[in-house]
Amino acid sequence: xxxxxxxxxxxxxxxxxxxxxxxxxxxxxxxxxxxxxxxxxxxxxxxxxxxxxxxxxxxxxxxxxxxxxxxxxxxxxxxxxxxxxxxxxxxxxxxxxxxxxxxxxxxxxxxxxxxxxxxxxxxxxxxxxxxxxxxxxxxxxxxxxxxxxxxxxxxxxxxxxxxxxxxxxxxxxxxxxxxxxxxxxxxxxxxxxxxxxxxxxxxxxxxxxxxxxxxxxxxxxxxxxxxxxxxxxxxxxxxxxxxxxxxxxxxxxxxxxxxxxxxxxxxxxxxxxxxxxxxxxxxxxxxxxxxxxxxxxxxxxxxxxxxxxxxxxxxxxxxxxxxxxxxxxxxxxxxxxxxxxxxxxxxxxxxxxxxxxxxxxxxxxxxxx
Length: 369
Known about the structure:
Layout: H1 2-11, E1 14-21, H2 22-30, E2 34-35, H3 48-60, E3 67-71, E4 77-81, H4 83-92, E5 121-122, E6 138-139, H5 142-150, E7 152-159, H6 164-176, H7 183-194, H8 196-206, H9 209-215, H10 219-223, H11 226-239, H12 248-261, H13 265-283, E8 290-291, E9 296-297, H14 302-314, H15 316-320, H16 325-336, H17 352-366
Parallel strand pairs: 2-4, 3-7, 5-6
Antiparallel strand pairs: 1-7, 3-4, 8-9
């Protein structure tokens, strides 16, 4: 059985490998034969120290890890791993395109352990570089520029007929072990790959006041994409049935690909927006908090999201048709926490796989008019 599964999975993946010079990579990018999604640059961003150390490695001839690309139907390559390495090179030489269609400001380096003279080093002096006067910029000479352009890097190519799901899986596996992104940042990138407009729409709702007030996350949590994680969980639980076979994280990963790929994504996000506007109107930041019979207490948790928010979303059309929908919801939310089943949603040691199979169905039944 395992042998058959391995053989079948291997048929989905065709790969090839090249050794290419940095100069060739830059030329492919300039001619738009190599696609680097500019929106990724907002999710992954090296600091000046990391960029300087990477350029140092090129100048010292230290081998650098391979990059991974996906061969598209038109033969172009889409970068799926190695974003920071390639973006650092493109930015340093002044060729990195910005999300708005312009060109990013060329980077200026800082001193490193082995090359302290990299302080204020630039590819070539430019008045586009802010913060350091032109006369203080130290341009690389032609010999050093050639050394960087001739540096070689391995390119692993995921070739057609590998499907999009294979591309998403590879992207996630290559990045999951690193320190640059957490699970939700990886999902953000996958959503961008699947449907960029859908990602932007979800992000806009997740950053809109009704949603942020109801989930009540801190600035630090927002920096770590907690608001997007809760938005994605809400969308998946509302739209993709869970059979308990997959690990929760894998279910969320696969579920958001399914949701992003559907035709009516605007309607899906519309339900999310309406649900959290209702919750904000009803109780603001208390809407998903536990109610003890007198007041709402504690933090917003997954039980509230899965049982209350998803339960309302799954019944939204019927709820909106009620003449007294706000009174109905207010009472049902308060009574939700008094139900004996709730103890089975929060018991110590309860696995997420088990919790989801309890909270979501209960919420759907509980909020059905």
